[in-house]
Amino acid sequence: MSRRKLKQSPSSKAEPKTRPLLILASSSPRRRALLAEHGFDFEVIAPSGVEEIAPPHLSPGETVLANARAKARAIVHSDAVVLGVDTEVFFEGRVLGKPADMNDALVMISRLNGRTHEVYSGVWMVSGKKEYGFVVVSRVHFHKRTAAELSRYLARIRPLDKAGAYAAQDDHGEMIARVEGSYSNVIGLPMEGLAEKLDEFLERK
Description:
Layout: E1 21-24, H1 29-37, E2 43-44, H2 60-73, E3 80-91, E4 94-96, H3 102-112, E5 116-127, E6 130-142, H4 147-157, E7 176-180, H5 183-187, H6 194-203
Parallel strand pairs: 1-2, 1-3
Antiparallel strand pairs: 3-4, 3-5, 5-6, 6-7
Helix pairs in contact: 3-4
């Protein structure tokens, strides 16, 4: 089955206009693919020494924004816009990060099975002394699957590098019944309106 194509509005594509160099502060191949598919020219510099946090006193939105800000600020480049992103799965008031092993992945996806959860992404832009960030939230509804179906799904997607132990970009409707909000956000980078937000950021004094 072919990869699910994202629905694109006319505003979701990057406009062909001159911008400073865009640096993606992430090693995620999914984020790189989304930016490329939407027409952005960019370079990738993975931040080093940045530890993601999820303290209980922060809301989900504050958590992803703090992590995105730390990633963007870790890349020093005077002639570029640095884009930091953090995406987390939240369920029943807790962050579901990347599973430690396949047993942990099975426990994690079994909790989400047949239920609804939220995916939060924080996006932070840095250019010189200017900074700006925003948060996007999507609600994800899962099908109810048997234990055997869950095991086969995990074997197919290799979940150990995926928050929540599932892969929205390779799901093909197997687990995801529907998404309220941005589907690209669930993959790892909310593309809707990103070009416009980037241009608004660059126009700020």
